[in-house]
């Protein structure tokens, strides 16, 4: 089994063979994203592998940077500006800012330019009736405009098409006649759900991803075949569930944000193994810190997510919040002379100053190198040698009245505090007490920085799992293969609605069953999004019973809604009727998962550090000017289950470094995980 996670700075590849985990880390190349994937696969070897599970931020980065193909957008006449208006929401920080504009609006960087958004004469009513027939002559004329403009794909979203898709289906046929075999997505196929804007934005993203990923997938499949791979290529979706590549390309909008989601699944799987089911998950890479929550062993899943503020995609997605805090976060001086860290990042090119690739600005990686936490000769598995002199030069070049020691110390504290604030805010947002949760520190920079937040966040403990630098990729070997179908239908839950609801679930389950190979072991999970009659917003993932939906099942669904509503809001209104909005089926296939080998306990030989080192700038700066601390240095591979050691200490391994601070104690678990607590 092989998995790859394509990140903004590094591409992580892991292989599980005969119970042994092997890893490779390659710098991401934005000019040819498949190159590092294939290079890592070649390093580990893919002959005989049964699956190759893939997650990537390739599509997400294309949207964020607007390196997008030219596509057209067709909608009902009079609604061409739906993509510009969005939901007319502002972020909290911009409510009183008259200069604020949404990032994808026509006044900023629209996904589809207004002249490429064309209105089509037609109208379907809310109950599926036809108010105006599709004007095919006018539609052909608009498509001819798009042809002359040179579009490479078309997204179609007509009003109320989720109820009656007839006009969208015919428009897709006209696209083929006028434009030829270009990628074309229709909303009734991509996202047959209520709420026009979210359906439209999802369909546009799907069209982009078809164009971006079709060539990428072809190159990846060809390259893997040349390396001898004969197994199944799977793509992870935004909830880190796996879909065969061919099926994923049918609706590729679901894979646009797959990378960070895999880490959450890895945390949930590993937490179950060690008996820790309430987790705050923090993946600190080169560019960002991605934070999520696992409660009771289950990641928190949303029915939609945002690529940018108000840029909505209708896909099941692990709820992940990202902050601009990572190993590549740039240290700068603010207008008042204060030290700032992030959100700008040096990325992989030119990278931190210590990389010696032309970067002149200090970063968090330079900070930890100056302190002495990072071994300059063992970085990235020993494949890179860092230059502390360049880090020092970058800090000295800052326009600041602080001494060098203060610059490094404050840069470190700001990096840690940024992450602590992010973790605490996510805990509060999800209504959990961080004191009851363990913080899982992973990503190449997570173990190096996150144990220091114990003094601020006051979580129960910090857990550093095995192979933290590639833990998100390991999550792809912990994921299920899942197929999902959903339908929107505004139906008040009464016995009279039972036949219609039963037909919806029967149709969706039959549709999913047709996509599975005979004899496949599968479990169907039903749910619905519903609200109290008169409410605008839905309560998602209300359980729905299996079997025939009759009057008794309707009663169970109503009770389940009130239970779910009370758990989320603290209120219960049983006197009010309930209206179902979206009905959903998930087909979960029996999927092999990664197993972590247990490490042996220590024999008669006592634990001893490999050596000692001096960490600078972390102690009292007034005493000697450099705040020196003597720290023990351990090789993680030499640690044994049950080992206990106190900080200050540094634990080195191939692709990550763990820093145990003064006043902290680390215990080694049975799978080699490090459990760090305050003494």
TrEMBL record:
InterPro entries: ATPase_NBD, Hydant_A_N, Hydantoinase_A, Oxoprolinase-like
Entry's EC annotation: 3.5.2.14
Annotated protein name in UniProt: N-methylhydantoinase A
Location of the Hydantoinase/oxoprolinase N-terminal domain: 2-178
Species for this entry: Amycolatopsis viridis
Entry keyword 4Fe-4S: no
Record flagged with keyword Hydrolase: yes
Domain named Hydantoinase A/oxoprolinase: residues: 199-482
PANTHER family with a match to the protein in the record: 5-OXOPROLINASE RELATED, HYPOTHETICAL 5-OXOPROLINASE (EUROFUNG)-RELATED
Keywords linked to the UniProt accession: Hydrolase
MF-aspect GO terms: N-methylhydantoinase (ATP-hydrolyzing) activity
Top-rank taxon, per record: Bacteria
């Amino acid at each position: 089994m092989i998995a790859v996670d394509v990140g903004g700075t590094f591409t992580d590849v892991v292989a599980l063979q005969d119970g042994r985990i092997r890893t490779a880390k390659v710098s991401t190349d934005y000019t040819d994203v498949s190159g590092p994937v294939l290079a890592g696969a070649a390093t580990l070897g893919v002959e005989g592998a049964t699956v190759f599970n893939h997650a990537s931020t390739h599509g997400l980065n294309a949207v964020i940077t607007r390196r997008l193909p030219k596509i057209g957008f067709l909608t009902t006449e009079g609604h061409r500006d739906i993509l510009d208006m969005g939901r007319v929401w502002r972020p909290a920080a911009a409510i009183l800012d008259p200069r604020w504009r949404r990032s994808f609006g026509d006044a900023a960087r629209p996904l589809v330019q207004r002249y490429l958004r064309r209105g089509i004469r037609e109208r379907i009513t809310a109950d599926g009736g036809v108010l105006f027939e599709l004007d095919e002559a006018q539609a052909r004329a608009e498509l001819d405009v798009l042809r002359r403009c040179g579009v490479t794909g078309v997204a179609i979203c007509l009003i109320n098409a989720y109820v009656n898709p007839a006009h969208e289906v015919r428009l897709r046929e006209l696209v083929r006649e006028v434009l030829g075999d270009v990628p074309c997505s229709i909303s009734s196929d991509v996202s047959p759900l209520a709420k026009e804007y979210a359906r439209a934005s999802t369909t546009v993203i799907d069209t982009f991803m078809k164009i971006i990923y079709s060539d990428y997938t072809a190159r990846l499949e060809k390259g893997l075949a040349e390396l001898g791979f004969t197994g199944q290529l799977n793509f992870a979706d935004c909830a880190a569930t796996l879909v065969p590549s061919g099926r994923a390309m049918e609706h590729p909008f679901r894979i646009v944000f797959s990378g960070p989601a895999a880490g959450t699944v890895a945390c949930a799987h590993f937490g179950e193994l060690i008996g820790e089911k309430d987790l705050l998950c923090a993946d600190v890479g080169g560019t960002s810190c991605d934070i999520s929550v696992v409660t009771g062993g289950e990641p928190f899943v949303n029915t939609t997510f945002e690529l940018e503020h108000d840029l909505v995609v209708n896909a099941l997605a692990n709820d992940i919040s990202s902050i601009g805090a990572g190993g590549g976060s740039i240290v700068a001086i603010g207008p008042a002379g204060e030290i700032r860290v992030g959100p700008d990042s040096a990325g992989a090119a030119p990278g931190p100053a210590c990389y010696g690739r032309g970067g002149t600005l200090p970063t968090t990686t330079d900070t930890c190198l100056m302190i002495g936490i990072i071994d300059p000769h063992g970085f990235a598995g020993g494949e890179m040698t860092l230059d502390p002199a360049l880090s020092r030069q970058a800090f000295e070049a800052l326009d600041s009245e602080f001494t060098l020691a203060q610059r490094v110390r404050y840069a470190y504290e700001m990096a840690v505090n940024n992450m602590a604030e992010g973790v605490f805010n996510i805990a509060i947002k999800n209504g959990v007490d961080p004191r009851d949760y363990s913080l899982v520190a992973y990503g190449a920079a997570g173990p190096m920085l996150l144990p220091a937040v114990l003094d601020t966040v006051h979580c129960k403990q910090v857990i550093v799992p095995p192979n933290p630098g590639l833990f998100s990729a390991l999550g792809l070997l912990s994921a299920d293969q899942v197929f999902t179908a959903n339908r929107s239908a505004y139906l008040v839950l009464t016995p009279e609605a039972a036949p219609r609801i039963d037909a919806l679930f029967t149709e969706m389950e039959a549709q999913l069953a047709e996509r599975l190979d005979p004899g496949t072991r599968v479990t169907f999970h039903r749910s619905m999004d519903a609200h109290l009659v008169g409410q605008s917003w839905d309560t998602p993932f209300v359980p729905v019973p299996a079997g025939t939906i009759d009057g008794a099942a309707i009663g169970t669904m109503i009770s389940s809604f009130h239970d779910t509503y009370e758990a989320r809001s603290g209120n219960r209104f049983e006197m009010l009727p309930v209206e179902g909005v979206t009905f959903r089926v998930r087909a979960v296939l029996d999927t092999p998962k990664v197993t972590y080998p247990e490490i042996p306990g220590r024999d008669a030989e006592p634990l001893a550090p490999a050596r000692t080192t001096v960490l600078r700038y972390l102690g009292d700066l007034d005493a000697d000017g450099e705040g020196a601390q003597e720290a023990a240095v351990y090789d993680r591979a030499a640690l044994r289950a049950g080992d206990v050691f106190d900080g200050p200490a540094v634990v080195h391994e191939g692709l990550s470094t763990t820093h145990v601070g003064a006043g902290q104690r680390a215990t080694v678990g049975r799978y080699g995980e490090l459990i760090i607590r305050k003494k």
